[in-house]
Amino acid sequence: MVAETIDGKAFAARLRERVGEAAARFEEKAGRKAGLAVVLVGEDPASQVYVRSKGKATLAASMNSFEHRLEADTSQDDLLALVERLNADDAVDGILVQLPLPAHIDAQAVIAAIDPDKDVDGFHVTNAGRLAVGQAGFVPCTPMGCMMLLTDRLGDLSGLDAVVIGRSNIVGKPMAQLLLDANATVTIAHSRTRDLAAVVRRADIVVAAVGRAEMVKAEWLKPGATVIDVGINRLPPADGEEKGRLVGDVDYGPASQVASAITPVPGGVGPMTIAVLLRNTLVAAHRNAGLTAPEGI
Ligand SMILES: Nc1nc(=O)c2c([nH]1)NC[C@@H]1CN(c3ccc(C(=O)N[C@@H](CCC(=O)O)C(=O)O)cc3)C=[N+]21
Ligand SMILES: [Mg+2]
């Protein structure tokens, strides 16, 4: 079997297009653009790349982008004060504080300071709780993007066996909850899981979110499984390479001989994360303006 490639990049482009059209309609109704504030502390090169592409995508989707770049030695109090200003700013519908933060800042305290109704990352405990008990709130962008790719590919997930590898608050746990809400039978595997290969072997759906390059092997997969690879790992440069290649958590080449469908890295889940961020921001804008959020985005 040769797996079909799940083209997250193209799916995300279509989603951003729809969000952009809905954002233009929002502007007509509300008399202002929807706005996303992105806060970056320090100069981590990877974070700078992400923040730049978020800003570009936000503007391209007819929304305002407010970028706040702070020195690496910014105090936690100064960062919290900025978050408070953004909470109070009516032009700001969504707030994203880029993670990771420098070690001297308590990321949990910063996330807790964000107004849950502007928390378009879905990281605030209020939104985690809303997801856990089935109330409307913001769902973390990466797992939401994975769900969109899965339901587009498979339709009804009811009764399917899903294995999520990784238990982070940002991906693994919310991913498992979304799969459960879709009536899949869900297993969360992690570093202490015994015989991970045997656990993965049962799965119709595998979501790999461990952050270890090419860890999930083709031999672990049930033939015909649908594989969503959340990992973005840079390999050490090979001979003659300036930068190492980007690879996922799945050993893509061999895995694509066993799976029926698989997301590539890059071009899979990553672009979906940004598209869902824009969608969450537009939903936030509608709520803040007292308008009904549009359907079909
Ligand atoms: N508060 C917060 N929210 C986040 O959502 C958040 C964050 N902090 N910190 C960092 C991670 C990482 N992240 C990515 C987003 C898009 C791609 C993406 O578009 N990747 C492309 C390009 C990859 C490349 O070429 O570097 C792809 O996979 O095809 C990747 C990673 C969001 N994050
Ligand atoms: Mg975590």
From TrEMBL:
Recorded catalytic activity of this chain's protein: (6R)-5,10-methylene-5,6,7,8-tetrahydrofolate + NADP(+) = (6R)-5,10-methenyltetrahydrofolate + NADPH; (6R)-5,10-methenyltetrahydrofolate + H2O = (6R)-10-formyltetrahydrofolate + H(+)
UniProt key word Transit peptide: no
InterPro entries: Aminoacid_DH-like_N_sf, NAD(P)-bd_dom_sf, THF_DH/CycHdrlase, THF_DH/CycHdrlase_cat_dom, THF_DH/CycHdrlase_CS, THF_DH/CycHdrlase_NAD-bd_dom
The Tetrahydrofolate dehydrogenase/cyclohydrolase catalytic domain, residue ranges: 6-121
The entry's keywords: Amino-acid biosynthesis, Histidine biosynthesis, Hydrolase, Methionine biosynthesis, Multifunctional enzyme, NADP, One-carbon metabolism, Oxidoreductase, Purine biosynthesis
Gene3D superfamilies, per the entry: Leucine Dehydrogenase, chain A, domain 1 (3.40.50.10860), NAD(P)-binding Rossmann-like Domain (3.40.50.720)
Residues annotated to bind NADP(+): G166, R167, S168, I232
Domain spans labelled Tetrahydrofolate dehydrogenase/cyclohydrolase NAD(P)-binding: 140-288
EC number: 1.5.1.5, 3.5.4.9
GO molecular function: methenyltetrahydrofolate cyclohydrolase activity; methylenetetrahydrofolate dehydrogenase (NADP+) activity
Hydrolase found in the keyword field: yes
UniProt superkingdom: Bacteria
Pathway of action: One-carbon metabolism; tetrahydrofolate interconversion
Subunit (UniProt): Homodimer.
Sequence similarity: Belongs to the tetrahydrofolate dehydrogenase/cyclohydrolase family.
Function noted in UniProt: Catalyzes the oxidation of 5,10-methylenetetrahydrofolate to 5,10-methenyltetrahydrofolate and then the hydrolysis of 5,10-methenyltetrahydrofolate to 10-formyltetrahydrofolate.
UniProt-recorded name of the protein: Bifunctional protein FolD
